[in-house]
Amino acid sequence: MRKTEILAPAKINLFLEIFPRPSGAVLHPVETIIEKVTIFDRLSLQTTLSRIELRSNLAKLNTPVNLAFKAAALLKDTYHIKEGVRIRLDKKIPVASGLGGGSSDAAAVLLALNRLWKINEPISRLFPLALQLGSDVPAFLAPGRCRVSGFGEKVKSLPIGKKMDYLLVLTGIKNPTSLAYRQLDDLTYKPCSSKMIIAALKKGGTTEVAATLFNRFQEVLGEKNKEIKKWQTLLHDNFGSSLLSGSGGSFFVLLTKEAAAIDLQRVGTTKFLAVTTFVLQ
What we know:
The structure is a single chain. By secondary structure, this protein is of the alpha+beta class. Helices cover 31% and strands 26% of the residues. The chain has nine helices and eleven strands. Strand 3 (52-56), helix 1 and strand 4 form a beta-alpha-beta unit. The mean pLDDT is 92.
């Protein structure tokens, strides 16, 4: 039996704009800049005779509705693979935290099984399959920072001239993405563009990038969710700026020279995790 291991990185959204849902559409179009960061799930995969099996250190994830299981099943069905796979998922990315762990796991399974089952498709041929699994999954097939638009199907890799350091703030708040989108449906606003942050990222200055961070969900949820508002205020008072990742509930702080000098023991929480930009080799 053949086996392999792969890391599935978390993500943060340096920019996230949500556009009005077109008539008859289920999803909202988005524009987002995704940064992979150095907190990972680890997946170990070993071929079996025919069955797909999934085991995780979190028992609630041992289910066929897990995206990692679905990714294996989709690839097996699409390419008529007779072999199966045993997947061991060592979960480190907090579940339902806005860090994209489930989507990253699914993309990692597609990448790993493409090799392990000797399908050997170009990565570009896996994007349609990834999109079937979820609108965030295709972005994790790109090796590093990327711009995602449309309904998740348009993924453009962005150059990384300089890796950046962040503090993840793992609040533990569970905020259903579907609820966050419904709350957006009640609002009227002028959409923002990612042009400014892309320009700032090209220059590579953390102060300039920090000034262009944006998440439409933060504007909405900061008013409607008392827990998110509390964390937003705490982080603003101590760091000057922070941003929700996805629809939350994790925040992140970009470590500018000023933010990096702050004594974390004075902030009033220990829920920090230092991470940096990650690029898949």
